[in-house]
Amino acid sequence: MLVYSFIVRIWRQKRLPDPEYRGWVEHVQSGRRTPFHRLAQLPTIIAAYTGVSLDRPISWRQLVRAHLDAIKWYLRRRDREREV
After folding, report:
1. Would you say residue 1 lies in a domain?
2. What is the pLDDT of residues 10-28, one digit of tens each?
3. What's the structural domain count of the chain?
4. If DSSP states are collapsed to H, E and C, what string results for 26-70?
5. Which of the residue ranges 2-6, 19-23, 31-35, 70-74 would you say has the lowest mean pLDDT?
6. Which of 3, 23, 41, 61 is the most buried (most CB within 10 A)?
7. Rounded to 5 degrees, what angle do the CA atoms 69, 45, 15 make?
8. Which residues constitute the domain of residue 39?
9. Secondary structure class of 7 (helix, strand, coil)
10. Residue 70: exposed, middle, or buried by beta-carbon count in 10 A (0-12, 13-18, 19+)?
11. How far apart are CA 59 and CA 76, in angstroms?
């Protein structure tokens, strides 16, 4: 069984006219970090480490998108709580 582990760090760039979420993905097994400037880049970065093609059945994309949506929801909720 192959196991892939990733650490994902995400932060919000507030100074930009349109705030963006940026960060990096660290592949734990190799220690390599890959920066990203849009959350939409995460599936491509992870696919590169795992060798999974994004052209595979939609279930892979749906899974990754669901995780990204959960991350976005959490970050928005956290930002709202900090503003109060």
Report:
1. no
2. 998 877 677 788 999 999 9
3. 1
4. EECCCCEEEEECCHHHHHHHHHHHHCCCCCCCHHHHHHHHHHHHH
5. 70-74
6. 23
7. 60
8. 6-83
9. strand
10. exposed
11. 26
